[in-house]
């Protein structure tokens, strides 16, 4: 059994401590906005926040959590799509297929939490998610737009 705080709510799940957080979120809690991509923490599709920091949940064991950390998924980023990154994504029509975008949005929100006025170098270093459709140029423009918006 694991006690977690997900999107502001305390939950208890029956999961082995080695189970990746991704599968607890998707299978046990039904939060399917967090996607499976590679399973080896390379692509970033599974990115969520733990205490405001982006984490790749496909390799993060649920047993590494004490239950006090705040886990935020794409569903918990904002109730109505009003987060500055979500606003910028809509305004710039960033997604193509969209599969990687929940993880990309969470990575970018984490970047802006840590570095409110990121340079292109900051973006290159901190947002290492992969988009196979090739929307990365629009993502960069979206990040620069998002940093000008208010939460």
From TrEMBL:
Domain of life: Bacteria
This protein's record includes keyword tRNA processing: no
InterPro entries xref list: 2Fe-2S-bd (IPR002888), 2Fe-2S-bd_dom_sf (IPR036884), 2Fe-2S_ferredoxin-like_sf (IPR036010), 2Fe-2S_ferredoxin-type (IPR001041), 2Fe2S_fd_BS (IPR006058), Beta-grasp_dom_sf (IPR012675), Diverse_Oxidoreductases (IPR051452)
GO molecular function, one term: oxidoreductase activity
Keywords: 2Fe-2S, Iron, Iron-sulfur, Metal-binding, Oxidoreductase
Domain spans labelled 2Fe-2S ferredoxin-type: 1-77
The protein's name in its UniProt record: (2Fe-2S)-binding protein
Species assigned in the record: Henriciella mobilis
């Amino acid at each position: 059994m694991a006690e977690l705080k997900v999107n502001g709510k305390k939950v208890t799940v029956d999961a082995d401590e080695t189970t990746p957080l991704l599968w607890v979120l998707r299978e046990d809690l039904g939060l399917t906005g967090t996607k499976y991509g590679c399973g080896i923490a390379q692509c970033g599709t599974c990115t969520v926040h733990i205490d405001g920091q982006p984490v790749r949940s496909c390799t993060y064991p649920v047993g590494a959590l004490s239950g006090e950390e705040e886990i935020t998924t794409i569903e918990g980023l904002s109730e109505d799509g009003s987060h500055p990154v979500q606003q910028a994504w809509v305004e710039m029509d960033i997604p193509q297929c969209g599969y990687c975008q929940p993880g990309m949005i969470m990575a970018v929100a984490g970047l802006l939490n840590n570095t409110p006025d990121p340079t292109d170098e900051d973006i290159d270093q901190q947002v290492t998610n992969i988009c196979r459709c090739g929307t990365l140029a629009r993502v960069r423009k979206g990040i620069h737009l998002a940093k000008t918006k208010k939460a």
